[in-house]
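Dear colleagues,

As part of the handover before I leave the project, I'm documenting each prediction I ran so the next person doesn't have to rerun anything. This entry is a single chain, and its sequence is reproduced below.
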Amino acid sequence: MPGKCASLVLIAMGLAALVGCGSNSTHTAYVTLPTSNAVAAYRIDNNSAQFTAIVGSPYPAGTSPSSVLVHPSKHFAYAANQVGNDISLLPINSTIGSLTETLPRTAAGLAPASLLMDTPGNFLFALNQVSSSISVYSINSGSGALAPVAGSPFSTFQNPVAFTLAPSGKFLYVVNANLAAVFAYTVNSGVLQPVTNLPVQVGNGPSGITVDPTEKWVYVANSTDNSVSVLSINSSTGALTLVSSFAVGTDPRSIAVQGQYVYVANLGSSNISVFSVNATTGVLTQITNSPFSAGGAPLFVAIDPDGKFLYTGSQSGSSISVMSITSSTGALTATSQSASTGVAPSSMSVTK
């Protein structure tokens, strides 16, 4: 049964701020729904992980939104519209968390598939898969408006499929599927410069990438090889060195780090592989009982800002599934909580 605060959220249809729920009692989550040209919005109870759809959700966006990010101020969100070749600015209602798009949209390259943002929220990065480039925008902190930085878009090699930004904002890494490799760029006021002596080869079919919070390791999910590659980062130059690769489930697509644990969403085997990380060597060791069964065909994995829960986007179930995280072991436990999205979700951004 939900607690008192969660019950009030249900009654008020998302009006948590008006009915006595503390500001830290819930998180707000936004989920892209490409085939509906929309972004869904939910309140998530911090203790139970119960989802409540915010009134009016889902909200219109551009054509086939594939990725969504929330600005650190929580005043606005952005959606990359993969078919529309543009980016939607979606101001967030501070009371209930609803979205209303500001037009016109900002032009991107061809098929912007995913978005990144630096920690302070000064720059937004869009990976354009068809035009093989990265668009970089400065963000107006007051209005959320985007303006291309000098030199944007920046060319990258053909068929980039995913990218990630180091927590410091100094380095950006791009996965190239054709070459089964990772390229690196330095970032200076949003301007990208290639790092020399790259790319570094990884497994076949790389599809997901992330950097650990200590900025020592890059992890790449290789969907064809059913493996995860670990690469070490040169803290001065951003250059990468392959450490090793480790077996996971079938068709891994997404990867996330929480503390000393790595979580990999395996689309084909509908489970999550969990590893502990040796902080010195980067070597991965699969934890007891891993992999853990997940919602049907999880395309992505996202971790709750408090580290309590792990969310997966089910492609076959058109839903978000919730698993609880045991902080001492990294183990996952299925919960009864989930949220129906109506159509297959493609990405999720959860506010702190």
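Residues 1-23 have pLDDT under 50 and may be disordered. The helical segments are 4-12.

All the best with the project,
I.
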